[in-house]
Amino acid sequence: MTLVDACCNTLPTDAEWQPKGADTILGTKIDGHERKIYRTGPKDSKRGIIAITDPLGFHPTTIQVYDRIAESHGGFQLAAPHVMKDGPLPLSMLGDRPAMMEWMMKNYNYKECHFDQMILAAVRDLQADGCTTFSIFGQCMGAFIAIRAASEPGQPFLATGGPHPSMTTVELVQDVKCPVILLPSKDEADMIPIIEAVNKKNFAVESFQKRYDNAPHGWCGGRGDWSDPEIFKAGLEAVDLLGGYFAKVAEIAEKDQ
Predict the structure, then answer these.
(1) Quick one: which of 70, 46, 67, 69 has its CA closest to 129?
(2) What GO molecular function annotations does the UniProt record carry, in alphabetical order (predicted)?
(3) Is 162:207 a contact under the CB 8 Å cutoff?
(4) Domain boundaries, given as residue ranges, for the chain
(5) Is-contact 180 190, C-beta < 8 A?
């Protein structure tokens, strides 16, 4: 497991945002414990989105991205589980790559941390609230988890991916069951080979990449300073691209229902 340097040594920004949603309790206990989940978006939408945070957790910019996507393109019910049981990455670890890698291995292990169970429980909650279609995305390591979830047999997702994705490789997408949207920053490697690999699967919607060479790693999450007009513009475009992509796959699925 490797991370870009910017993920290992950049502090979160001092951002502000008044959440439009609220935390609630996930309908299913995970490993015997109640877990929280952030819910936002119009309650009458039948389109659901699962969102997975970056290691800095529910930073104001992260929540702003969730709230804005939930209100975009006709609206979505968005559910973001508090996947890190012991809290976000300790800032004291920034700059210490070995310590960070050890923390990542412990806190972003897809099976051992019960990400798979939390994601499916969140889907069930959205289904109970009327959702009939689902996509999943994440920021940074959250994108890695989202693609893993969308690679499971019988998974319900119509699209996956996310901004400034970490650990995203051709090998990661070899079993993905739906198209992928990737929005790398200036700090990530080119991901066109990943998109080309997924497009060989001939999904109804083509996979898509848009690079943001004017934005740093984490600009749609804990390291996003949207008081910077250029970063704000890039963030709004990312929200529009993600919301539009998820709306497109949902519309196609709804026609087949």
Answers:
(1) 46
(2) hydrolase activity
(3) no
(4) 5-256
(5) no
Which residues make Cβ contacts (< 8 Å) with residue 174, sequence separation at least 6? 197
Spell out the residues 6+ positions from residue 159 whose beta carbon is closer than 8 angstroms to its own: 135, 136, 137, 150, 178, 179, 180, 181, 205, 245, 246, 249
DSSP state, residue 93: G
pTM over 0.90: yes
Architecture of the domain whose range is 5-256: 3-Layer(aba) Sandwich (3.40)
Element (H or E) spanning 96, and its range?
A: none
Tokens representing 53 are 């945070």
Record the tokens describing residue 1, joined without a space. 């497991």
Q: How far is CA 15 from CA 62, 91, 109, 144, in A?
A: 10, 16, 28, 25
- Please answer whether residues 87 and 222 qualify as being in contact, where contact means their C-beta atoms are separated by less than 8 angstroms: no
Q: For 175-208, write each residue's pLDDT tens digit.
A: 999 999 999 999 998 899 999 999 999 999 999 9
